[in-house]
Write a structure and sequence with these properties.
The complex is a heterodimer. Chain A is α+β, with helices and mostly antiparallel strands. Chain A has helices at residues 21-33, 37-58, 86-89, 99-103, 111-117, and strands at 5-12, 60-67, 71-78, 121-127, 131-139. In chain A, β2 and β3 form a beta hairpin. The longest helix of chain A is centred in the middle third of the chain and has 22 residues, at 37-58. The chains are: A alpha+beta, B alpha/beta. Chain A binds chain B through residues 16-20, 23-24, 27, 37, 41, 44-45, 48-49, 52, 92, 102, 104-111, 113-114, 117, and chain B through 32-36, 38-39, 49, 51, 53-56, 58-59, 61-64, 79.
Chain lengths: 141, 116
C-alpha cells in the first residue's frame, strides 16, 4: 500500500452560498504541494462540480482527496437520493435540478459530464434511496 | 488588451483589485451558467456575467480568471467583493447588456484569433 496524503472535507448541504469552499481550500492545498497548474485546475473543477452536486441533490456529504505519488484520488460520498439512471445523468444537458438551482447558475446538466471531462477515470456507485459515491482519479505527470 | 482598457470600453466601475488593472488578458467569455463556463472555457481570463452570487467568484477562482465583469449594472455583495479581493480578481460593473459588452470587447480585438 503506497503512502498518501489525505485531505478530508465535510460538505454542508444546506447552504448554497458556501458550496465550493472545500474545493477552494483544496486548490490552495495543491498549490502548497507544488502541483502543476493544469493538474490543480482539473482536480479543482471536478471536485467543485461534485461539491455543487452534493449540495443541490444530496444535502451535502463528505469529500476526501488523497494525493499519491502518481495520482490524485477524489472521493465524494453522500447519503442523498441516489442516481436513478446513470447513463441519462452522464448526458450533457440532462438535469433534474429545479428552476431555483438554474437561477443560481447551475443545473445545466454539465456536472457529471464535467467531472468525467476533467479526470482520467470516474467511477460512480449509487443506490437509489441510499446515496452515491463518486471516485475520480487524475494521474500526475 | 489590459483590464484598464476593458474598464474604459465598457464604461465600467472598478469594485475591487484596481491595482491589477494593468494585467494583460487575451480572451473572455460571457455566460450566466457557471456549469457552461466550467465545461467550455479554456484559458479565458475574463468572465462577463449577469449572475450575482458567490459561485460566480468561485468559478472564476477555479478557472484561474483575472477579471469578472458584471453586466446590466449588477452589483456583487460585500462578501463576494471580499472573496475576489482575497484571490486578486478584479471586479467591474457595467451598465451595458451582455450582448453589447461582449460585442464591444470583441470588436476591439479581445479574443479575436489572428491568423499569421
Amino acid at each position: 500500500m503506497s503512502e498518501f496524503l489525505n485531505f478530508h472535507f465535510d460538505v454542508d448541504g444546506d447552504n448554497f452560498v458556501s458550496a465550493g469552499q472545500a474545493s477552494v481550500q483544496m486548490k490552495k492545498n495543491m498549490r502548497q504541494l507544488g502541483l502543476s497548474p493544469e493538474i490543480i485546475r482539473k482536480v479543482s473543477i471536478a471536485m467543485y462540480e461534485g461539491e455543487i452536486n452534493m449540495v443541490i441533490h444530496a444535502h451535502g456529504g463528505a469529500a476526501d482527496v488523497n494525493v499519491y505519488e502518481d495520482r490524485i484520488e477524489i472521493i465524494l460520498d453522500d447519503k442523498g437520493p441516489g442516481i436513478k439512471d446513470i447513463d441519462l445523468a452522464m448526458q450533457e444537458g440532462y438535469s433534474t435540478a429545479n428552476d431555483h438551482v438554474r437561477a443560481l447558475g447551475f443545473g445545466a446538466g454539465m456536472g457529471l459530464p464535467n467531472m468525467k471531462r476533467y479526470t482520467d477515470d470516474t467511477q460512480i456507485e449509487t443506490v437509489v434511496g441510499e446515496g452515491t459515491k463518486i471516485t475520480m482519479i487524475v494521474y500526475l505527470g | 488588451m489590459n483590464i484598464e482598457t476593458i474598464k474604459n470600453l465598457l464604461n465600467a466601475e472598478v469594485l475591487c483589485c484596481g491595482e491589477h488593472l494593468d494585467t494583460t488578458v487575451h480572451s473572455a467569455c460571457g455566460s450566466d451558467m457557471m456549469s457552461d463556463v466550467l465545461a467550455f472555457v479554456k484559458d479565458q481570463a475574463v468572465l462577463l456575467t449577469g449572475l450575482v452570487n458567490s459561485q460566480v467568484i468561485r468559478t472564476a477562482v477555479m478557472m484561474d480568471m483575472r477579471c469578472v465583469v458584471f453586466v446590466r449594472a449588477k452589483r456583487p455583495t460585500l462578501e463576494m467583493i471580499e472573496f475576489a479581493e482575497e484571490n486578486g480578481i478584479v471586479l467591474l460593473s457595467s451598465d451595458m447588456r451582455m450582448y453589447e459588452a461582449c460585442g464591444t470587447l470583441y470588436t476591439n480585438g479581445l479574443g479575436v484569433s489572428r491568423k499569421a
